[in-house]
Amino acid sequence: MKKRIGILVLIGFVFSVSYLPAQRSGMQLDDEQKLLQVMHSIHSQTLFNYVKELASDKYWGRLTGTEGYNQSAEWVISHFEKWGLLPAGDNNTFLQAFQNPYTLVFEDCDVCMNIPVDGEMVKKYYKYEQEFIPGSTSGSGEVTAEVVYVGYGITAPELDFDEYKGMDVEGKIVLMEREAPVSSGDDPEVFQKWRPYSFHQYKLKNAVAHGAKGMLYNYHITNPNNAYDENFIYSHVGQTVVKDVFAGTGKDHGPVVARIRKELKPQSFSTGKVFTIKNTTEHHSDGIAYNVIGIIQGSDPILKDEAIIIGGHLDHLGRCYEIMPGANDNASAVAVIMGLAEALAKSPVQPKRSILFLCFGAEEQGVVGSKYYVENPVFPLEKTVCLINMDGVGAGDKLSALSAENFPELWGYVKRANEKYTHRLVFPRYFSNIARPRLDAARFLWAGVPSLSFSAFGTPSYYHVTKDNIDIITPEIMEDLAQMLFMAVLDIANQDEVDFRKALN
Fold it and tell me: From CA 44, how far away is CA 292, in angstroms rounded?
């Protein structure tokens, strides 16, 4: 943990500057001291312990819909209750329920290449996680078939682009790239035409529609954000598998993909390679998911009808087939939310506006929990001042503030708090938000709610694999983020007038 500066020295420093939310609320010296004491009560060790709890095996990776996720939600709720937060979910509870199917993945999963040698078939098995990861929404069963490379798996007549044209994939396995041959960083007008074809769900359904029975998806992560077909077996693969598929075909994977992107012309071909994909899964079409919502009601009789949301997703990937702990993604954000909830509940400065603490479910399954909340808000969206969202804030020594350049006035509150109190490197970013939704803030931005989304970077971290565990967490970054947000949120909450929507016009 970082060495703390003496509290009296810090208090003396803070009194010497003009920016202090407590002063703007007409507080006395003793109250100002208490405010700083509360800010410094947000401690890295406490936040680390929250992450350690949520990333432990007892919650089985927190896949939304499972009992493990539900138990993690109850654990968070128990703390909200202890700190005096009020329930803001359904029927005077902390839970907002919505339907969300999910799939369980069990250990009996394999990917292998079948190699003919002297009239016999030799099987080359690939290593779990290092070389393949089972599809998190795969059907249960086994398929052995020739592999056909279909590029990005897109059929788009209006774009004169069909990667299945002339290809026989009936009963076969397709090898497919993620995303689309045009990216969101290219011409936005051009990208919008390709955007519908970048979704995982589209790609899987299109493969099924063309008669394919399996897929090797060149997207080497665990990913429950996809469609489900009980007769379609697929796994995610890395470069080892892709190279083996291309070997001996006279084609190199990198140049083929580059040519698709440059010419926007299909480069599909039959590889002649025979693979077997085997997955053991169990689909639950009737899954029930939950957002966790607690509130500190505002003290002002008028401004209490406006809300500031502090949010981040509670869920992770579950088991695929080993437990995916999700320490950074996104137990770290929930830990910061909890640190803020306790501190704001104890604050000697009562917020005039209401503060909503929102732990989203089903972010990993299509950013569904935030979509449901936006469609069923606790506060009307026009009364929602802003969303402060966090996703992956526990591994790094620097912070990124996505959409800060979209909302400079909102960003200004956080920037000033950081400059006066925490002195952490925070990089403001612009967010076009035109690609498929990848974080909860995207849903709010589309609904017209000013939003910032924080993430950490600068040290090794791991995305959607088993190594996203407690070993990669740097608690100090969570402490600094929580402390700066504590000051910034209080300042926003106690302004007589605030309107960040001006940036949307």
Answer: 23
Per-position b or e across 251-274, b if 16+ CB within 10 A of its CB = eebeebbebbbeeeebbbbebebb
Per-residue tokens: 373? 């909340």
Q: What's domain 19-100+287-504's architecture? A: 3-Layer(aba) Sandwich (3.40)
Domain limits of the chain?
19-100+287-504, 104-283
The shares of helix, strand and coil residues in the chain, as percent rounded to the nearest 5, are 35, 25, 40
Per-residue pLDDT of 362-383, as tens digits, reads 999 999 999 999 999 999 999 9
Q: What percent of the chain has pLDDT over 90?
A: 90
**Can you give the pTM of this predicted structure?**
0.93
In this predicted structure, the answer to whether residue 256 has a pLDDT above a threshold of 50 is yes
Structure tokens at 424: 């952490």
Query: What CATH class does 104-283 carry?
Result: alpha beta
**Rounded distance between C-alpha atoms, residue 200 and residue 185, angstroms:** 19
Please tell me the distance from the alpha carbon of residue 109 to that of residue 323, in angstroms, as a whole number. Answer: 14
Judge whether residue 13 has pLDDT over 90: no
Q: Is 89 left (phi over 0), alpha (psi -120 to 50) or beta?
A: beta
CA separation for the pair 235, 251 (Å, rounded): 23
Q: Quote the tokens at residue 494.
A: 């106690």
